Amino acid sequence: MKNYKITVNGNVYDVTVEETTGTAAAVSAPAAVSAPVKATAPAPAPKKEAAKGPEGSVKVTAPMPGKILGVKVSAGQSVKKGEVLLVLEAMKMENEIVAPSDGTVASVQAAVGDSVEAGATLATLN
After folding, report:
1. Residue 17 forms beta bridges with which residues?
2. pTM confidence score
3. 66-71 and 78-79 as β-strands: parallel, antiparallel, unpaired?
4. How do 115-116 and 103-108 pair as beta strands?
5. pLDDT in tens, 57-70
6. Which one of 24, 77, 94, 100 is at 20 to 30 Å from 6 when CA atoms are compared?
7. How does 33-53 read in b/e, with b if 16+ C-beta sit within 10 Å?
8. 75/110 Cα distance (integer angstroms)
């Protein structure tokens, strides 16, 4: 038998693997170590800001993590409630991010190709 320590998402697991002469190998269920050891994450890359201007009073945020496929508005443009501002791809689906109210786009803080996290500000309206 061989013992291994495996780290998954910062959690350390002790795993025992039994060596056999046949084609099947028995693997014990991972047992969580009492105190997870946090691995040091690489320093995040500096975030680029696309066409960021003065922020407006209404923030339009990403409902889920994903990738920006399209930006349909620009700063200074008037929008109506429900008008598409950006297109966000998440889980292989295109999601339209719409204006929550009538207003003027104060800033667009995402660009095509950007990866965004849930809750990230994509644009602001006045």
Report:
1. 2, 27
2. 0.56
3. unpaired
4. unpaired
5. 899 999 999 999 99
6. 24
7. eeeeeeeeeeeeeeeeeeebe
8. 12
